[in-house]
Amino acid sequence: MSVDKSLIHLSLVPGIGPRTIQQLLQEFESADKILSLTLDDIDSGKLSVDPNLLRRIVYEKEKISVDQELELIQENDCQVVTCGDSSYPVLLRDILDPPPVLYFKGEIPPETIPYLSIVGAREPTDNAKKICYELASQSANKGMTIVSGANNGIDETAHRGAIDAQGKTVAIMACGLSQVHLCENRNLITEIMENGTVVSEFPMSAKTKVMNFVQRNRLVSGLSKDTILVESTDRSGSLITARFALEQERNVFILDGANPSSRTYLATHRLISRGARLVDSAEEVLELLPNYPVNQDQNLLVPVVDS
């Protein structure tokens, strides 16, 4: 496996997020140059980057075993694509803070097959689940790849609809891929690996944290041109995903027919003033989405990571 080892190393430095790494790469051109900096270079006063940030990288990089990370990638039968690779998802590259490293297991459907993100409540009504399943299965039949977060509720239903339709689906995880066996929906995740892929921006051994869900939601929306919000509550992470989609200038559809009498569902209407579109049914969404014919002879694209 040929990877940008330096970029993986840099991404493992604690407290250095995607946006900071992006800014550093713009300044220094490569992760290798960043990791090669010495304290003398930093103290010379010739660099325009925050010296405290660079000192932190110098101190922390020695504590990190990038070889151990590469071993975990191999042991778990995963692959890596980095932001400098030609196979990095185009739509994801366009967001404000694309992850420098993406870990994945399974096969990533090619971007010639459009992606559709479906999100919603973890405890949805039966009607919302029914609409979600129909939407996911019919969208998969139209040739779209279904993206969601592999949580209980709407996420699970969206993945299931795609799988049952023999379509492709992508799950964005809030933990490292060596930890997915601890997830509630680990059996579903196994099925997803056989019908698409699971993806994470977090290091292989990273455990699930509350903030990880918020961070990964920008990827759920970022992979697709269209995000469907089936049902939500005031504090639902799916609302955050919809807001990310609007900030990324993607289309957001709110399914009004999922639970029109619910007080909590009305919270999603706040998104309309920001550009989201209210629709009445799964059928209306399907009519608005283009029809992408499936090429039955087209193999799944497995990204080849540049060195």
Q: What can be said about this structure in brief?
A:
This protein is of the alpha/beta class. Helices cover 39% and strands 13% of the residues. It is globular.
What does this structure look like?
The protein has 307 residues and is α/β, with parallel strands linked by helices. It folds into two domains: 1-64, DNA polymerase, domain 1; 105-288, Rossmann fold. The chain is built from 13 helices and nine strands. The chain has a nine-stranded mixed sheet, sandwiched between helices. It is globular. Residues 294-307 have low confidence and may be disordered.
Q: Any idea of the CATH topology of the largest domain?
A: Rossmann fold
> Poorly predicted ranges (pLDDT <50, ≥5 residues)?
294-307
The count of DSSP E runs of length 2 or more, i.e. the number of strands, is 9
Q: Report mean pLDDT, rounded to a whole number.
A: 85
State the distance separating the first and last CA atoms: 9 Å
Which secondary-structure class do the elements indicate?
alpha/beta
Number of domains: 2
Determine Rg (CA atoms, Å): 20 Å
CATH structural architecture of the largest domain: 3-Layer(aba) Sandwich
Main β-sheet: number of strands, strand sense, barrel status? 9 strands, mixed
The CATH class assignment of the largest domain is Alpha Beta
The gross shape turns out to be globular
Q: What is the count of DSSP helices, taking H or I runs of 4+ residues?
A: 13
Sheet-strand content, in percent, reads 5-15%
Helical content class: 25-40%
Give me the side-by-side strand order of the main sheet: 1-2-6-5-4-3-7-8-9
Order of helices and strands: HHHHHHEHEEHEHEHEHEHEEH
